[in-house]
Amino acid sequence: MTDEEFLRVWNELRDRVIAYLESLGKTIDAFGDKDFWVVDDDFGLFLVQVEIMDLDLLQPQVIYGLRDLLNGYPEFAITVAVVAPRGIDWPRMGISLVKGQIVDGLKRWALPPAYQHLHYEGSRPD
Predict the structure, then answer these.
(1) Pairing mode, if any, of strands 47-52 and 77-82?
(2) 102 neighbors 42 (Cβ within 8 angstroms)
(3) Which residues, at least 6 apart from 25, have a Cβ–Cβ distance to it below 8 Å?
(4) pLDDT number for residue 87
(5) Where do the structural domains in the chain lie, given as residue ranges?
(6) Cα Rg for the chain, rounded, in angstroms?
(7) Tens digit of pLDDT per residue, the chain (126 long)?
(8) What is the pTM of this model?
(9) Which of 94, 108, 121, 124 has the most CB atoms lying inside 10 A of its own CB?
(10) CA 71: distance to chain centroid?
């Protein structure tokens, strides 16, 4: 894949991730004041990085939807990083979606109780 092809495909996948999350009624914002952000620099990696501030985006159906977006992009991965609310000290945590797999790196003990029992069918721990 040439650099030009890579950039076209990376932007296409990034746009699809944004459209999917917005279709759920969520709002994108780079400054952490809304529901999510999708990093806008490719860093030359086959990776789209999502940062979430709205923990409802950790619901299994949302994660499965992001995973399914990768069906047409076999060489790409998506990471979903949890951004702690201002003033709260959480460890770094998130979920990686790679080649149809869900790699669960959530630190549930640090999440609010409503999110501590999330389960992703077929996932494996980080």
Answers:
(1) parallel
(2) no
(3) none
(4) 86
(5) 3-125
(6) 14
(7) 899 999 999 999 999 999 999 999 999 987 777 999 999 988 889 999 999 999 999 999 999 999 999 999 999 999 999 998 888 889 999 999 999 899 999 999 999 999 999 999 999 998
(8) 0.94
(9) 94
(10) 15
Structure tokens at 34: 């809304």
Q: CB neighbours of 27 closer than 8 A, spacing ≥ 6?
A: 34, 35, 36
Contact 78, 17 (CB under 8 A): yes
> Cα separation of 93 and 82, whole Å?
6
- CA 16, 102, 40, 71 torsion-angle sign: negative
115 close to 58: Cβ distance less than 8 angstroms: yes
Three-state SS string over 35-81 comes to CEEECCCCCCCCEEEEEECCHHHHCHHHHHHHHHHHHHCCCCEEEEE
